[in-house]
Design goal:
This protein has 1018 residues and is an alpha/beta fold. It folds into six domains: 127 residues, 3-Layer(aba) Sandwich (Rossmann fold), CATH 3.40.50; 106 residues, PAS domain (Beta-Lactamase, 2-Layer Sandwich); 177 residues, 2-Layer Sandwich (Beta-Lactamase); 110 residues, PAS domain (Beta-Lactamase); 155 residues, 2-Layer Sandwich (Alpha-Beta Plaits); 236 residues, EAL domain (TIM Barrel, Alpha-Beta Barrel), CATH 3.20.20. It contains 35 helices and 37 strands. The strands form seven sheets. The chain has an eight-stranded mixed β-barrel, surrounded by four helices. Strand 6 and strand 7 form a beta hairpin. Helix 9 packs parallel to helix 14.
């Protein structure tokens, strides 16, 4: 080398130092040496001498080579450091090399020193070149970094085998991250990528790496640290391949192209908006309806303009609520809840603000603390921008166009200006269509009115009010008027309004004339005449017509032919006042006629007679021959009655077989008797009904006005009481009302009222009359007998209230109560340990015929858990013989329950042995009427004996009731009667007394001469 090298020699032995210098100068004759042997001198030489090579002994008295090496590495790390030592083991040598020594030479091998120095100097030159290159590269990298940062770009380096991706700090800054803490890989890049862009980006990468593309270039969105999205352009090139051609490494750039994408989107959106504006203008020209216009406008905004949702709403007529009228978009469901928020005064939505403030309103804060509905749109539908533009016509806001977009940068000023033009055009178009629709509606309404007038079934007349207002001339008559009257429109034109009206009802015409003169509406019922002379009834309604200034110009009259309606009303009136079967007056008309008759009678000082007729035995005819025959008979009776009274008298039918004849203005009761006898005489002749001659007679009750009453109701009631008196006396007679009759009726009504209260208050009592076994003399049973202890009347006889209960229907709840009470009593006696006895309960005819009798008995037994064998039901022969077959069926149903059946009053009526043998009866009861004279009257004795014999023959037990003396008892015992009851043993007793008797064990003393039943034939 030409330049002088400076050698720093660390050596404490001068001889060794001289040898080293001599050896070095062989190769480097111009070398300069500095000899040191202490630490301070060594440090000073490093700073001042600035050696090119350091040659150091390893062992020195005050200093050593390892320390010198460490100091040199700290001060001059790039200067070669060579150990020149007398002796060093291999381990120490390795340690020195690891510590930074460039080489080591043994002093006895100094010939290796110069080659070692040369090698170290060459290595030092290479290091210096590397440092220079590194500095140049760092400068270039800094320049590149500045350029990339200015261009908003970053670099990437991808190891295609491992997927490791290294990026430049600019990319980290681009995403908002700290470059020193930013970590990246292909997987992380994919995670930050927008979900909609992952597929296209991956496809571009795969196709380029797979050789299907010539270059790698793709744009996608990356999520920044703040959660926003930026557009990134990624371009790269494969820079390394394996020997088989497989790509191993790809370098490229990452550029932020968000601004370019935004500009492109704005340009695209602007073009779309212009296209929408053009299409909407076409729609405004071509639309034929408001609905079509709104639908096409909204559709153009969504499908061509690329907006998410567009809708048009109108302000309500009666409230500020904005109601959607047209909408298009993928999220129409939001409109359902939007109505609830339009009136939110504290935080109105953009649509409400646009309407109230008369200006466009843009909202881009859906992620912030804004309107709840808008927050919902942002969170669930991704809406980021909303604009609402008011629809204005003649200075009045009547609605709004609202548009939603997912792009937060939507609706720039130019776009808003164009949308404002669109909204103005839309408002103009809507107004035009509405005006057109109003015109068409008015024209259609006018045409419809004309058609309605022509097609109306009512006659319609239009008269000129400017002429004679009392009878204005006709200008128009519709076809219905021609059909109604026979006058054509030509014939009617010019005639007075009332030209077809018959003038027999001047009052109706006067009212209508007053309506015309007063220029008011009016209505009247007119008797009119057709062109052919026929009369008809017409209802005319007149109304005045006024022009826009309020001046009267015409009258319109609507005519309705009510002839059929009048006839129908007359029929209804007749039906309302007459009997449908006979055509006679009904109760309503009768009351009216009676009222008129009493007025006339007062004027003439005469009387009015009311005759109430009830046909005797009519029910028998009706039931046996049928209702048609009964109706025919009633019709014949009505005809005969009508034919035999005066014109001023009234014949009425009240219903059923009851008729009333009102004799108006008769002189006195004698005249009434004479007329009544004539009326009774008309029943002497037979009535021909259904091919048969029937004889029937009435019972007639008569009341007189004013003696028996001053009002129709009182007169009818008195006549009814008198009629029942006549019927109770055998019928075919007449009776005048007498006050004592009313007293009896009143008493009966009072008794009925008190009986109802007694039933409701459980005031009725059950008495028990013991039955005695005529063999043992012991009590074997009892008969339950109903008693009514009255607070003021005392004990009321069953003969007084039982028939009344039958008549009023009270017998049904009474009978049910008796059965329930008796079953409960028997069960209570048995639980008390008393002798077990059966109890007989009497059934009424009405109770026996009830459909639920079997259920009633079963329920009573079940409720009290009573064995049916202890309950006996007592029937009468008369009730069974009314409908014997039905009675047998009912009795069989009762027998299935397990109760006993007894037959009372056998032999007192029309007994039938044929039916008796079919009746499932257990006990045959001998009526007290036969027992009373059984010891003194052979006929009574014969009947009683026969009944006992029949009972034995049919396998029944016999029991005699009403036994009151020893002779009667003697007879019964001698003829084999099994049981008896009567005062001879005990009267009917209250339950407490009966139980006392039962506990006492009292027995009947049987006569000694008596024969045990079965030992002597009866």
């Amino acid at each position: 080398m030409d330049y002088r090298l400076r050698f720093l020699l660390v050596e404490d032995t001068p001889t060794d130092a001289e040898l080293v210098q001599r050896e070095v100068r062989k190769s480097y004759p111009n070398a300069e040496f500095l000899l040191v042997d202490t630490r301070p001198d060594f440090l000073a030489a490093l700073d001042s001498f600035r050696p090119d090579v350091i040659l150091s002994d390893y062992s020195l008295p005050e200093f050593d080579g390892m320390t010198a090496l460490q100091l040199a590495r700290e001060r001059l790390p790039d200067i070669p450091f060579i150990l020149v030592t007398g002796s060093i083991n291999e381990e120490t040598a390795v340690a020195c090399m690891h510590a930074g020594a460039w080489n080591y030479i043994l002093k006895d091998h100094l010939r290796r020193l110069c080659p070692a120095i040369e090698n170290s100097l060459e290595q030092c030159l290479r290091i210096a070149e590397h440092h220079r290159t590194d500095r140049e590269l760092a400068k270039n990298e800094e320049r590149l970094r500045l350029a990339l940062r200015a261009a908003n770009q970053g670099l990437f380096d991808i190891d295609l085998e491992s997927g490791e991706m290294v990026v430049s700090p600019e990319y980290a800054l681009m995403l908002g991250y700290d470059p020193f803490t930013f970590h990246n890989s292909m997987a992380l890049t994919r995670e930050r990528m927008h979900p909609d862009d992952v597929e296209s980006a991956q496809r571009a990468y795969d196709e380029y790496v797979g050789g299907q593309r010539d270059e790698y270039r793709v744009e996608y969105r990356q999520r920044t640290k703040d959660g926003d999205w930026i557009w990134v352009l990624s371009r790269g090139k494969i820079v390394a391949r394996a020997t088989d051609g497989t790509p191993r490494r790809m370098l490229g750039i990452l550029a932020n192209v968000s601004e370019r994408k935004k500009n492109e989107a704005e340009l695209i959106q602007l073009n779309r908006t212009l296209r929408v504006l053009s299409l909407c203008n076409e729609t405004l020209v071509r639309a034929t309806s408001e609905a079509e216009l709104l639908d096409n406008i909204c559709r153009n905004l969504v499908e061509v303009g690329g907006y998410q949702l567009a809708w048009v709403g109108f302000v309500g007529e009666t409230s500020p609520l904005i109601v959607p009228a047209g909408q298009v978009g993928s999220d129409l469901g939001v409109l359902g809840c939007l109505r609830e928020h339009l009136l939110d005064c504290d935080n109105p939505c953009p649509t409400a603000r646009a309407v109230s403030q008369h200006r466009p309103v843009l909202e881009k804060r859906t992620n912030g603390p804004d309107h709840p509905h808008l927050r919902h749109l942002g969170e669930t539908l991704g809406v980021r921008a909303i604009i609402a533009l008011p629809l204005v016509n003649a200075g009045n806001v009547f609605g709004a166009l609202t548009i939603y977009s997912r792009d937060i940068d939507a609706f720039d000023p130019e776009e808003i200006r164009l949308l404002g033009e669109l909204t103005d055009d839309l408002a103009f178009g809507i107004s035009g269509l509405r005006n057109q629709a109003a015109r068409q509606s008015a024209e259609a309404a006018l045409k419809l009115y004309q058609l309605a007038i022509e097609a109306s079934s009512n006659g319609i007349l239009i008269a000129d009010a400017a002429a004679d207002i009392s009878d204005p001339p006709l200008l128009h008559a519709n076809p219905a008027f021609a059909r109604m009257t026979g006058y054509s429109e030509v014939e009617a034109r010019g005639q007075g309004l009332f030209f077809f009206v018959h003038n027999d009802d001047p009052l109706a015409l006067r009212d209508l004339d007053a309506s015309l003169r007063n220029k008011q509406t009016g209505m009247g019922l007119l008797h009119c005449r057709r062109k052919n002379g026929e009369f008809f009834w017409c209802e005319m309604a007149i109304s005045p017509l006024r022009n826009a200034q309020g001046r009267l110009t015409h009258f319109v009259a609507v005519l309705t032919d009510v002839t059929e309606h009048k006839r129908y009303e007359e029929e209804l009136e007749h039906q309302a006042t007459h009997d449908a079967l006979t055509g006679l007056a009904n109760r309503n008309l009768l009351i009216d006629r009676m009222g008129q008759s009493t007025v006339f009678a007062d004027r003439s000082q005469r009387v009015v007679a009311v005759l109430l007729l009830d046909l005797d035995r009519f029910k028998v005819i009706n039931d046996s021959l049928g209702h048609l025959a009964g109706d025919e008979l009633l019709l014949h009776v009505a005809q005969r009655l009508t034919a035999h009274v005066r014109a001023g008298d009234t014949v009425a039918r009240l219903g059923g077989d009851e008729f009333v004849v009102t004799l108006a203005e008769v002189a006195d009761a004698a005249d009434v008797v004479m007329v009544t006898k004539k009326l009774m005489a008309i029943f002497n002749a037979a009535f021909s009904v259904a091919g048969r001659d029937l004889h029937i007679h009435p019972s007639i009750g008569i009341s007189l006005y004013p003696k028996d009453g001053t009002d129709p109701g009182s007169l009818l009631r008195c006549a009814d009481i008198a009629m029942y008196q006549a019927k109770n006396e055998g019928g075919n007679a007449f009776r005048f009302f007498a006050p004592e009759m009313n007293l009896r009726v009143t008493e009966t009504l009072e008794l009925e009222s008190e009986l109802r209260k007694a039933v409701a208050n459980a005031a009725l009592k059950i008495f028990y009359q013991p039955k005695v076994d005529l063999v043992t003399g012991r009590i074997c049973g009892a008969e339950a007998l109903l008693r009514w202890p009255h607070a003021s009347r005392g004990m009321i006889s069953p003969m007084a209230f039982i028939p009344l209960a039958e008549e009023t229907g009270l017998i049904l709840p009474i009978g049910k109560w008796v059965i329930d009470s008796v079953c409960a009593a028997i069960k209570a006696w048995q639980k008390a340990g008393l002798p077990e006895v059966s109890v007989a309960v009497n059934l009424s005819a009405r109770q026996f015929n009830e459909q639920d009798l079997e259920a009633t008995v079963r329920q009573a037994l079940a409720n009290n858990r009573l064995d049916p064998c202890w309950l006996e039901l007592e029937l009468t022969e008369s009730m069974l013989m009314r409908k014997p077959e039905a009675a047998i069926k009912t009795m069989q149903q009762l027998k299935t329950i397990g109760v006993s059946l007894s037959l009372d009053d056998f032999g007192t009526g029309f007994s039938s042995l044929n039916y008796l043998r079919r009746f499932p009866v257990d006990i045959l009861k001998i009526d007290r009427s036969f027992i009373t004279d059984v010891a003194t009257d052979s006929s009574a004795a014969a009947v009683a004996t026969s009944i006992i014999a029949i009972a034995h023959t049919l396998g029944m037990r016999s029991i005699a009731e009403g036994v009151e003396n020893i002779d009667q008892l003697q007879f019964l015992c001698e003829h084999g009667c099994e049981e008896m009851q009567g005062f001879y043993f005990s009267r009917p007793l209250p339950e407490e007394e009966f139980l006392t008797l039962l506990r006492s064990g009292k027995c009947l003393e049987i006569p000694q001469s008596a024969v045990v039943p079965g030992q002597k034939e009866s």
